[in-house]
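Priority: low. Protein: Cytochrome c oxidase subunit 2. Input follows.
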Amino acid sequence: MTSKAIPDASNFVKGVDTSFEVILGIIFFFLIAITATMIYFVFRYRKERNPVATQIHGSVPLEILWTVIPTILVMVMFYYGWMGYKPMKEVPDDAFVIKSVGRMWNWQFEYENGKKTDTLYVPLDRAVKLDLVALDVIHSLYIPSFRLKQDIVPGKEQMMWFIPGREGEYDVFCTEYCGLQHSSMQTSVIVMPQDKFDSWYIDTTKTVTLISDRPGALGLTIVKKNGCLACHSLDGSKLVGPSWKNLYGKTETVVSKGETREQTIDRAYIINSIYNPNDDIVKGFSKGLMLSYKNELQESDIDEIIEFMKTLND
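Result:
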């Protein structure tokens, strides 16, 4: 993956880079000019040469000068910024639409044919529109190589669009702090030629990862796809949620409606915990950090996850 500067990675790179270059150019010019002037004044008007300071009570020409010049500079910077920003809101009618869903702490991309992936696949040299949705807290989709960033507020419709200009794989980050595992909320966008994208898109296999024959392999794929490992460890270490190491079949103390009780971690409990995660909280962990996956996972998917969990028992 890459986040380095690539001039034609998307159609917005030139506009954004130009505005930054203009602003930086103005900043450096005045940094050098003002610093040089100050140094000159230090020597030119030092006490030895001017023992009695000259009192200046005002200068209309100077007031006009340092009001007009900054105004012009601000308008120049605004112009280049606006010229880079305005096209980002003008989406072509024939743009290829993908739904981008952000939740703690993973991304999911949903295509019109029903495919769902945790990596964004897009065709080369074709307009792509992302309909952005946040299911829990504020997230922010950032593709640095494309010079694109958009905050995603729950309950509010947002979008971004772009035309990928070069084949390759590029970094995608969340740049709005969204909780303990915020730093792990990253993925990539893969740009491929139109013919390769068409072949991938019409493939009826929704999971691009090859499934091996070993026990729990499909469950592991489902777990990774839905970002479960951001909160649940596999080695016994404590994260946001209980570790899955030796968890299945174990008896845990859970808190339910303010009361504690002993609960065997069986199929029924796991299904309810995935669909209604705040009903029974394992003692020592916080309530309200996990959202329901009722719309994302069928019971058959959960059965595969359970098969994977069984492989973690000693």
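The chain has three domains: 12-89, 96-202, 217-311. Residues 206-212 have pLDDT under 50 and may be disordered.
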